[in-house]
Amino acid sequence: MIGLKRGSVQLCEHENEWELEAQYTIVRLKKILGDVVKDIQHVGSTSICSIKAKPIIDIAIAVDHFDDILAFEKELKNAGFYYRPDAGIGNQLLFACGNYYDGSGDLQTHFIHVVLTDSMDWINYINFRDYLNKNLTVAKEYENLKVTLAAQRSVDNGRKYYLQGKHDFIVNTLREALIDSQLGKTAEITTGETNHVNLAERGEGRDDT
User: Fold this and answer.
1) Which residues neighbour 16 within 8 Å (Cβ) at sequence distance 6 or greater?
2) Distance CA 158, CA 142 (A)
3) CB 46 within 8 A of CB 204
4) pLDDT tens digits, residue range 43-81?
5) Stretch (H or E) spanning 40
6) How many CA atoms lie within 13 A of 87 on its CB side?
C-alpha cells in the first residue's frame, strides 16, 4: 500500500514495496534533474525496515542551490511532482505527489524534501534513518509512540497533533544519532536546537499547508 488520505493518520506494517517505490522515484528524479542532484536518498519511516509507518514515501535531495531545482519546476510538475511553496518548513523546498495535488482525488503518496548539500537538515535525515535501522530497540520505541499517537487521533488536520507528539523523541534521538555518527572521528560535534526542532516539526510525510 502506498498513499494516504490527506489529514488521516494510519500506520501500516512495513512493506518491501516501499523501498522499491523509493528507488523507482529516485531514478525518475535523477532523470529529470541530472547533475543538479548531489545526493538523493530514501528517508523517513518507510526507510526504517523494522517499524510500522504511514505509507507515504519520503525522499531527500541534496543540492548546492535551491534555484537549481526551481529551474525544473515545470518538468517536475509534468512528471507528477508538485511544488508546495507555502509548506512553511524552514530551509528546504517541498514537492509532493498524489492525486490530491492534481485535483482528481484525496491521496498523498510521496514527499520530496530538497535541502542544501552537507547542511544539518541533510545530516539529520540520514542520521535518523541510519540510527534507527542500527538500533532496533530505539526503533521499536519510536514505533510504539507512533502507534499510540495514531490511535489517539486517526484524523488530524495537518497531522499537527501527531507531529507534536513525536517532537521530543525525534529531538533526543537526533542528538544520539549525531554522536553515534561521529564515533571514531576527530571532527568537533556542534549541534543546534533549531536544526533538531526543524526535523521534528517536519516529521516524515507531513502534510503541507
Assistant:
1) none
2) 20
3) yes
4) 999 999 989 999 999 999 999 999 999 999 999 999 999
5) strand 39-43
6) 24
